[in-house]
Amino acid sequence: MTELKSSLRESKSARWVVLVLVSFTMMCMYYLTDAMAPLQQNLQSTLNWSATDYGFFTSGYGWLNVFLLMLIFSGMILDKLGTRFTGILAIFIMLIGAGIKYWAISGHVNGNFELSISTWQLLGETPKSAVIAGLGFGIFGVGCEMFGISANKAVVRWFKGKEMALAIGLNTSTGRIGTALAMFTPLPLYNLSKDVSAPILLSILLLCIGLLVFIFFTVLDKRLDREESDAGILSDEEFKFSDVAEIARNRAFWYIAMLCVLFYSAVFPFIKFATNLIVQKFTVPDTFAGYIPALLPFSALLLTPLFGGISDKKGKGATIMIIGSILLVCVHLLFAIPSLNSFPIAIGLVVILGIAFSLVPSAMWPAVAKIIPHNKLGTAYAMTFWVQNWGLMGVPLLIGYVLDKYCITGTISKIVDGKEQIITQYNYTIPMLIFACFGVIAILFAFLLKAEDKQMGYGLEKPNVRD
Q1: Which residues are paired to 412 by β-bridges?
Q2: How many CA atoms lie within 13 A of 435 on its CB side?
């Protein structure tokens, strides 16, 4: 696209206002994504769920995106109709999904479904509340991923040739504030209200505020359209359905997509189980345990912009992804060692995981914009997120199943509000080894991406800021 020297996009203050608006809505979105993670134990005891049921509910996030290809359609809608329409549509979808999730978890659904996969009785008797909540989470997931790709494309549009990696890093890390808040606010909300669904109500309120903020972004983005139109600047060639095949033929794209699914499968599902892991392995009280996983997004908040700024000025994007993947493996292997169970070790490992969580996204998302033309970028991000959703859907279910099948070490009785609750005890060694395996394979794809960049000259190792 031709540059317009006097456009709103060339105003540094306008660019950063746009980033703040988009990032705030991302923060609201991420809060609901992880709001139930600190309440795994409470969900299991209150709704009579097992770890498998909790994993099944958590896996619901990716059901519709994966099996109905909703993410692919979202990318096509984004490239056809633009970030403004797609972003607002995504927020309304998230609100619908959040409402269904609240209805199921707040006690309106009773009974069980008999669920099995072929002749493999993986799930068996599954509470209807887990199924309906998973469905609501799946609808929310459609809107969440749709908004994620819209936000990425919006940031690329406003910052391409500028501080792109820094901006994407800030957008991502601001979203992680929502994850951090979701680590330590749900349990106090539950203790205050005695309602396990209370954090979802707060999430719905935040999403409504996020909608208003995003509408303000659309005003600025529409003004940029007018300026470029008045200057005679034409948009990129329109997206065509055949472009999906063109993206799919790009080996570098698939290396990034595989790195994405493997890396995030070792981070986001870990967050879903992290509070329970901290309680059971490190004997931290459940009233405090959520603060430790919250260090991960907070460290990402501080470090992602730093690494993004380095990538903007110095390059080395592929190398940064390799380093981040190596750190990921080291952290999960150390979590898997039973004797490493002191409180300071838990804090240190989460902080290091936060560093890895900062390194890889700060380089990975700008890399997609370097290998894919802007008019196909929404679909490329959608295809990447679609691959990622296979991991976000399957891994929590796998971890929950493994915990129930192989990792139960006993049960304890606990009196809560005058009622007896049976708490299942788990050994998390095997799940941590599974997460580490994902990281090992991610390292392989990071090296393949670096080799492909050297051969094709995408410039992943070069700075993003143009002189």
Answers
A1: 423
A2: 30
**Number of C-beta neighbours around residue 3 at 10 A:** 12
3-class DSSP assignment, residue 2: coil
- What would the two tokens of residue 62 be? 């990716």
Cα(90)–Cα(443) distance, integer angstroms: 33
Is residue 467 situated within a structural domain? no
Fill in the DSSP letter of residue 240: -
Q: Are 276 and 337 in contact (CB under 8 A)?
A: no
- 363 is in which domain, residue-wise? 9-225+237-456
Asked if residue 465 is part of any domain, the answer here is no
How many angstroms separate the most distant Cα atoms in the chain? Answer: 72
> In sequence order, what DSSP letters do the residues of 343-383 get, joined into one string?
HHHHHHHHHHHHHHHHHHHHHHHHHHHHHS-GGGHHHHHHH
Residue 36 tokens read as: 């139930």
Whether residue 259 contacts residue 447, with contact meaning beta carbons closer than 8 Å, is answered with no
Q: Name the β-bridge partners of 413.
A: 422
Q: Residue 396: inside a domain, yes or no? A: yes
Does this model's pTM top 0.85? My answer is: no
Lowest mean pLDDT among 115-124, 184-193, 385-394: 115-124
User: Could you tell me the CATH number of the domain that includes residue 428?
Assistant: 1.20.1250.20
In a domain? residue 150: yes
**How far does the chain reach from its first CA to its final CA, in angstroms?**
18
C-alpha dist (Å) from residue 36 to 56, 80, 179, 240, 350: 13, 35, 11, 39, 19
Residues pairing with 420 in the sheet: 415
At 112 the pLDDT is: 64
407 Rama class: left (phi>0) / alpha (psi -120 to 50) / beta: alpha
Task: Report yes or no: 246 and 376 within 8 Å, Cβ to Cβ.
Answer: yes
Sorted by sequence, the CB contacts under 8 Å of residue 147 that are 6+ apart come out as 25, 26, 29, 86, 87, 90, 91, 94
Q: Look at the chain and report how many structural domains it folds into.
A: 1
Instruction: Give the SS3 label for residue 423.
Output: strand
Distance between CA atoms of residues 360 and 364, nearest Å: 6
Please tell me the distance from the alpha carbon of residue 129 to that of residue 109, in angstroms, as a whole number: 5
Any residues with CB less than 8 A from the CB of 38 and at least 6 apart, and which? 182, 183, 184, 186, 187, 275, 289, 290
| Unique residue bearing structure tokens 């607002």 | 88
Beta-carbon contacts of 350 under 8 Å, excluding residues fewer than 6 positions away, are: 274, 292, 293, 295, 296, 299
DSSP-assigned beta bridge partners for residue 408: 426
Q: What is the pLDDT of residues 416-463, one digit of tens each?
A: 556 666 778 889 999 999 999 999 999 999 999 999 999 998 888 888
